[in-house]
From TrEMBL, chain A:
GO CC terms, sorted: cell envelope; membrane; nitrate reductase complex
Species assigned in the record: Cytobacillus praedii
Signal peptide: none
A molecular-function term among this protein's GO annotations: metal ion binding
InterPro entries in the cross-refs: 4Fe4S_Fe-S-bd, Nitr_red_bet_C, Nitr_red_bet_C_sf, NO3_Rdtase_bsu
Enzymatic class: oxidoreductase
Record localization: Cell envelope
Identification of the protein by name: Nitrate reductase subunit beta
BP GO terms, sorted: anaerobic respiration; nitrate metabolic process
Domain 4Fe-4S ferredoxin-type: from-to ranges: 7-35, 173-204, 206-235
Coiled-coil stretches: none
Entry's EC annotation: 1.7.99.4
Cofactor(s) of this protein: [4Fe-4S] cluster; [3Fe-4S] cluster
Domain of life assignment: Bacteria
Length: 500, 230
């Protein structure tokens, strides 16, 4: 047993309002620099839709993640030898058009324009070429709230898989938001894809980072990540990615996206896992078994033996305590209501999603008479097809999704019964049975999902940096000093000043 | 004059190459990378970059065979001069054409694609244009001079001179009688060598050959954090 600690996140999709605050605050913190304008470490997609970059889930095209060949894990895009043979040109890499050509507006013109009959306008201007773009045609959220309609939705690889034709008429269509960051995977294919060994997983908290001094810009990580969450900075010619706001988490603070989340959908906590079991779990034959296999690598933080072993592995008391109070452990491992995104990529992603409930398709005729058990068929009749959620969150296993939705529905029914009556009926209901839960568990769930305060949602031990040398120097220092241009307004096209 | 160009100049170039590369690696390590513009354009890059790089790889092997390996070696294994030159002209000719055509495609792409163009610096243009000069001279020598004038036996002049540089006893007289075309090819390539540390050409020193031998997953613990750079 090789115990390691991992900081992980849960996003409760039922509560995401698709406001993009998370994306904007993240961008203002990390990617508002030349070379990174097209980059959103955090982005919120409206699904169904192609996402960002377009069709990132199309593994035939980008060849991200792992596949199983003869029972062994292989990088889908090819192993080290084939990568070196393809080093002069990466056939599977996305280009800027798969993301979008970032633009700003010519605001200058608004106060410099001479007096004229018509109001001056600020024309869109490319942040790559500095030229005016007469008609922007795609952006990171071009299809927000299904804005692309029936033209864009079919580009979603999950939709293409659906057996049934999905309806696009206003009354029948469905929609959900999917906020995404780097998954800080337990078996990251980005790390394995890097010829220079520049990507690595931090031993102490599992955060996956790019060493800016070791990166040589070979770009295999970009499409090696099946979630497309490593980006190429065209200005510095190096890869950059979400760093889980480690300067904040080390201080015990949540990531910027979580801190500012308007819907309060995000939870952060520590989980303990056995690093020796990761490879085995990622290599199970049937993709539908991957979810259970992934769950099996986590260790119970209250088990005395685990605590003992964790101490031996050098994990300190505050981390063990945090693992015991972890909201992630509760939602993903104990209650099993948070699911990994695309477990079939075999990277063991560490951002978990509680699938959203959605309105029931057919009218319930007699609502007063609706018994508690009447909610059981309701989950099968929700607008968001279960197959769609299963394609995102459980490698097409609808029974996993159904169980979670039943639990979520049971929680609502129970909480309503508490205020308007019906607790006796609830106790004996088939709903409770079929959802495989108890009333105590439902109450705990309701508390964490509905009313939990800041310090229940974010249980983050500090990184114990106080023993480091040079703390005074590090205070306010920039980790990419020398790479990033000086702060202030940048004019476009941005001209590099460094060597070469 | 001959002494300067063939006995002193190569050492000046060697010194610049080593000192400036070390300086850049140590002081400006973050500027050490491959010059990829694939994110802006990939259709033409595919043809240009693949032709150029595979061509230059073959050309490099050809130079090892022609310049580093002494003529006596070929004689001892029974390769006649005639046979050698047929091989060298055919192999070198193909490699040279791949390099030159690849470079021309890359150059056209550089100034015709607006996205690539705005982000190409003087050094980027210089590299590609100067490589065309060096490789163009080399390909012309191989394909035209060798077949129309004489199959020049550089293995008894340029080869021994180049090897003598490494023993610090440059036999510069060997170079004075070499045809001008060949002299220009050698001098222009030395200028290119001197330019390497000031351009993105430094990426050629970073070929990640150790990749197949390392563990797929990389962990770094904070203790070893500072000195665990690969
Ligand atoms: C050690 C092996 C080498 C590797 C792995 C390598 C790799 C690369 C890569 C990945 C690119 C970027 C292509 C792109 O995506 O835009 C590139 C560009 C380039 N390489 Fe290499 N290279 C190597 C050797 C060389 C050598 C020996 C030379 C020249 C003597 C060279 C000259 C160039 C030039 C001029 C470019 C820029 C092309 C452009 O301007 O579009 N490379 N190389
Ligand atoms: S999600 Fe993050 S950790 Fe996982 S493969 Fe992609 S970049 Fe790497
Ligand atoms: S800030 Fe929160 S609610 Fe708003 S889009 Fe982001 S995840 Fe959703």
């Amino acid at each position: 047993m090789r115990i390691k600690a991992q900081v992980a996140m849960v996003m409760h999709l039922d509560k995401c309002i698709g406001c993009h605050t998370c994306s904007v605050t993240c961008k203002n913190t990390w990617t508002n620099r030349p070379g990174m304008e097209y980059v959103w470490y955090n982005n919120v997609e409206t699904r169904p839709g192609p996402g960002y970059p377009k069709e990132w889930e199309n593994t035939d095209r980008y060849k991200g993640g792992w596949t199983l060949r003869n029972g062994k894990l292989h990088l889908r895009a090819g192993g080290p030898v084939s990568k070196l043979a393809n080093i002069f040109y990466n056939p599977n890499m996305a280009t800027i058009d798969d993301f979008y050509e970032p633009w700003t507006y010519d605001f200058e013109h608004l106060h410099k324009a001479p007096k004229k009959e018509n109001l001056p306008v600020a024309r869109p201007k490319s942040m790559i070429t500095g030229k005016f773009i007469d008609k922007p045609e795609w952006g990171s959220n071009w299809d927000d709230d299904l804005a692309g309609g029936s033209e864009i939705v079919p580009m979603d690889p999950n939709v293409q898989k659906l057996q049934e034709h999905i309806a696009m008429e206003y009354e029948k269509t469905f929609m959900m938001y999917l906020p995404r960051i780097c998954e800080h995977c337990l078996n990251p294919s980005c790390v394995a894809s890097c010829p220079s060994g520049a990507l690595y997983k931090r031993d102490e908290d599992g955060i996956v980072l790019v060493d800016q001094e070791a990166c040589r810009g070979w770009r295999f990580c970009m499409n090696g990540c099946p979630y497309h969450k490593v980006y190429y900075n065209w200005n510095t010619h190096k890869a950059e990615k979400c760093n889980f706001c480690y300067p904040r988490t080390e201080a015990g603070l949540p990531t910027v996206c979580s801190e500012t989340c308007v819907g309060r959908i995000r939870y952060i906590g520590v989980v303990l896992y056995d690093a020796d079991r990761v490879k085995e779990a990622a290599s199970v034959e049937d993709p539908k078994d991957l979810y259970e296999a992934q769950l099996s690598v986590f260790l119970d933080p209250n088990d005395p033996e685990v605590i003992e072993k964790a101490r031996e592995a050098g994990i300190n008391e505050s981390w063990i305590k945090s693992a015991q109070d972890s909201p992630i452990y509760k939602m993903a491992m104990k209650w099993k209501i948070a699911l990994p995104l695309h477990p079939e990529y075999r990277t063991l992603p560490m951002v978990w999603y509680v699938p959203p409930l959605s309105p029931i398709m057919n009218h319930i005729t007699n609502e007063q008479d609706l018994s508690m058990d009447g909610y059981i068929p309701a989950v099968d009749d929700m607008r968001i097809p279960m197959e769609y959620l299963a394609s995102l969150l459980s490698a097409d296993d609808t029974s996993v999704i159904r169980r979670v939705l039943l639990k979520m529905a049971a929680m609502r029914v129970h909480m309503r019964a508490k205020t308007v009556g019906g607790m006796d009926e609830m106790k004996t209901s088939k709903l409770l049975q079929e959802a495989g839960t108890t009333m105590e568990e439902l109450e705990d769930m309701a508390r964490l999902l509905g009313v939990a305060k800041y310090n229940e949602r974010f249980v983050i031990p500090t990184g114990r940096r106080e023993m480091d040398d040079n703390l005074h120097y590090r205070q306010g220092a920039c980790s990419i000093e020398g790479l990033a241009p000086a702060e202030g307004m940048v004019t476009y096209p941005y001209e590099r000043s460094d060597l070469g | 004059m001959g002494f300067f160009w063939w006995g002193v100049f190569p050492y000046i170039v060697g010194t610049i190459l080593v000192v400036a590369s070390v300086y850049r690696f140590v002081i400006r390590g973050t500027s050490w990378h491959a010059p990829s513009t694939e994110i802006f354009e990939k259709k033409w890059l595919r043809i240009g970059s693949l032709l150029f790089h595979w061509g230059i790889l073959f050309a490099f092997i050809g130079h090892v065979m022609g310049v580093l390996i002494p003529i006596e070696f070929y004689e001892s294994i029974g390769v006649t001069d005639h046979l050698y030159h047929i091989g060298a002209i055919a192999g070198g000719g193909i490699a040279g054409l791949m390099v030159v055509i690849g470079l021309i495609i890359l150059l056209i792409r550089k100034f015709s694609n607006p996205r690539v163009k705005v982000h190409a610096s003087f050094a980027d243009y210089f590299t590609v244009i100067w490589l065309i000069v060096v490789a163009g001279l080399g390909t012309y020598m191989t394909l035209v001079y060798n077949t129309t004038v004489v199959a020049y036996e550089y293995r008894v002049t340029i080869g021994p001179w180049f090897r003598s540089l490494f023993t610090l006893q440059p036999e510069y007289e060997l170079m004075t009688a070499v045809p001008l075309l060949f002299q220009l090819h050698v001098l222009s390539s030395f200028i290119l060598f001197a330019a390497i540390p000031f351009t993105q050409l430094i990426h050629m020193f970073s070929f990640p050959g150790r990749y197949p031998a390392r563990a797929p997953q990389q962990y770094r613990a904070r203790d070893g954090y500072k000195n665990s750079r690969p």
